[in-house]
Amino acid sequence: MITAGSSRLEAWDSGTGPSLVFIHGVGTSGEMWRAAREKGRMRQALFSIAIATVLVATANSQSSAAFSKWSPGTLDIHQINTGRGNAAFLMLPDGTTLLIDAGDGGNPPPRGTAPKPDASRTPAEWIVRYLRAAGATQVDYAMLTHFHNDHMGAMPEVMKSIPVRTMLDRAWPDYDYPSRDHAEFKRSDFVAYRELLRQKQTNGERFVPGRADQIVLRHVPAKYPEFRVQNVLANGEVWTGTGAATQRLFPDLETVPQADWPTENMTSLGIRLSYGKFDYYSGGDIPGRPRPGYPQWHDVETPVAKVVGQVEAAVLNHHGNRDSTNASWVSALRPRLWIIPVWSSDHPAHDVLDRMLSERLYPGPRDVLATNMIEANRIVIGPMLDRLASAQGHIVIRVSAGGASYQVFILDDTADTYRVIKTIGPFVSE
Ligand SMILES: [Zn+2]
């Protein structure tokens, strides 16, 4: 056992891998990555050194300890870096488990991130190994924020590899919004996913906006009355903040040209998870800045921001793509921690990072945590990237019993030994 600050650290995994060896971004096998790897190797190596230097220079504290085990009463939020899309795993206070997305998508380097820890396993295998190392024997709830491969591409394989009891998505069982012939309903990963739900080893359930009793603690809920998951939105239907009431943001589709219909990103579902004073928001890829000439209702963020309000931690909408994270969103949520699930060189966009860091939009300190910065981000954004609190690694927010405080642990993503390479905080929940 190792003591660091007020945290008790025990070995999370008895792996014997290297302690704090920072190797950036390149897979070790797989044809798909080879060409890009050869071309970009020298530049990647130089960039690795630069980012490693930033990590060392800005660290609150450095450690090579394995991450400590979850303990009852604690809430652990893991943003897992596979380099291939979004995946977040939550160990709730009574041991109930929640998986938000399991992506397998994105561009190969140098435009996108390489698979993490490497390409020797699929993203689904890495995700399941991570879950098991974190102590999960099953997934009580999984949810898909929306049906894009960087959010769902690995989910069918995850469902076959570890028991998933309940799967929440935006359209079960009919899958008819915005229409039955919606392009995303024809993709191979979606077809495989739907077939698995038909086999009923996993119970499908439609995520219902407004409800706060759909994702609940399954083991000893009475012990943690201050824990709550509020369903905020899905398919443009948004909780009003009162009871379970909702309002619709999108017009009836018969009244608008098909070219203006909501995109898959706009239909994303979102939750606000609260534990005492601690609040966390995660909501897929909703946009906040309509494409040129598109109707104003394509801004989903602004009305959603009003009902979400201030949170301690927020996953960046659409990975921080240029159409997301508008000024209303930033000034309403005011998070202490921004979490960016990165798979591309425009995650985050330059102007999105500018808004996140703006003290005109909200005052006070904040930490931006990215899973996987790459050389292309560095070239475009430049020195502003030095202001990231973390640029590489799995991001774990550990919330203390009752939610009064929280701390960030950055875990090495180059191997499945999950060593802590940096800690940030603790912070007091507001
Ligand atoms: Zn996405």
Give the helix/strand layout.
Blueprint: E1 2-4, E2 7-9, H1 31-58, E3 75-79, E4 88-91, E5 97-100, H2 123-133, E6 139-143, H3 149-152, H4 155-161, E7 164-169, H5 188-199, E8 203-206, E9 227-234, E10 237-239, E11 246-248, E12 270-275, E13 278-282, H6 301-308, E14 313-315, H7 327-333, E15 337-340, H8 350-357, E16 367-370, H9 375-381, E17 394-399, E18 405-411, E19 420-428
Parallel strand pairs: 5-6, 6-7, 7-8, 13-14, 14-15, 15-16
Antiparallel strand pairs: 1-2, 3-4, 3-17, 4-5, 9-10, 9-12, 10-11, 12-13, 17-18, 18-19
Describe, in plain words, how this protein is organized in 3D:
By secondary structure, this protein is α/β, with parallel strands linked by helices. The chain has a single domain, classed as Ribonuclease Z/Hydroxyacylglutathione hydrolase-like (Metallo-beta-lactamase, Chain A, 4-Layer Sandwich), CATH 3.60.15.10. It has nine helices and 19 strands. The strands form three sheets. The protein has a nine-stranded mixed β-sheet, with no helix packed on it. Strand 13, helix 6 and strand 14 form a beta-alpha-beta unit. The two termini are 31 Å apart. Zinc ion binds next to helix 3.
